[in-house]
Structure formats: structure tokens, C-alpha cells
Amino acid sequence: MDESPDYPRKPHRLEPSLRVCLEQLHQLSVFCRKLDADTYENDPELEKIHKERNYSWVDIITVCRVQLPNYEEKVKIFYEEHLHLDDEIRYILDGSGYFDVRDKEEKWIRIFMEKGDMITYVKAMQLFVGEPVWTAYNQPADHFHT
């Protein structure tokens, strides 16, 4: 991915020939799967993933001006580098978009995702007191102590 400050929704490719394979993503703890998004409500493969990874919470959002309250504000958050203390999972039920991660040399990799694509970034277990809380911490997070 190029480092251009241009509109963040562009592909930002360095060169069309520079591609990252699934094995390279796996080495970065990025796991990709293709599922049938049309059957997500009763998909045995998705249910298997829930059980294997102990997922118990599902949140579905539609990212468009009409259906997402505070659309402009929320979309800006997608383009600010941040980290999470838990798994970051995206399963595209319709449409398409990008998911950006850094490689081991701190260079950006832009992953194009479309309907049926599921990506999991970082495998960890998080324990909660009470309801789950997913808080993003914007980078640089030098002030953040774990």
C-alpha cells in the first residue's frame, strides 16, 4: 500500500504486481476465510467458527449514510490507525471495502474484502467484568500501558 495521504477509500496500490499471499497474512496473525454470506444466519461453518473461537457476541452494522447514525464521524474512525486488545473480526455480508494492517517492517498492507470474506486479526482471549467493551486506542499508543 502506498503512503499517500489521498482520499483513504482509494485502493492505494504501490504496484499492481505487488501482492501479498494468504501465507504472508497468516504469518502476521491475519486469518482469512470465504463463507456464504447469504446463509450467515444458519451457516454451520460460521457456527463452527463461533464455537472454536468462543465468540458469543454478534454486531451487524450497515455502513451507509442512511442507516448508520453519525455516519461521517464513525467512518473517520475506520481511517485512524488504532489497536484493540481483542480479536478484530470482519465478515462482509454485503458490499466491499478495505482492511489495513501493518507488516513486520511497519509497512501497510491493504486487504480488499467483498461479500463472503471473513478476516480475523490477532488471536487472543479477553475476559470481561460485566458486558463486553471494545475500545479502540488511536496510534501512537505510547501512553497506553497494558
TrEMBL record:
Q: Which domain of life is it from?
A: Eukaryota
Q: What are the alphabetically sorted keywords of the record?
A: Amino-acid biosynthesis, Dioxygenase, Iron, Metal-binding, Methionine biosynthesis, Nickel, Oxidoreductase
Gene3D superfamilies linked:
Jelly Rolls
Record EC number: 1.13.11.54
Write down the top EC class of this protein.
Answer: oxidoreductase
PANTHER family in the cross-refs: ACIREDUCTONE DIOXYGENASE (PTHR23418)
**Annotated protein name in UniProt:** acireductone dioxygenase (Fe(2+)-requiring)
What's the source species for this entry? Echinops telfairi
Gene name per UniProt? LOC101663419
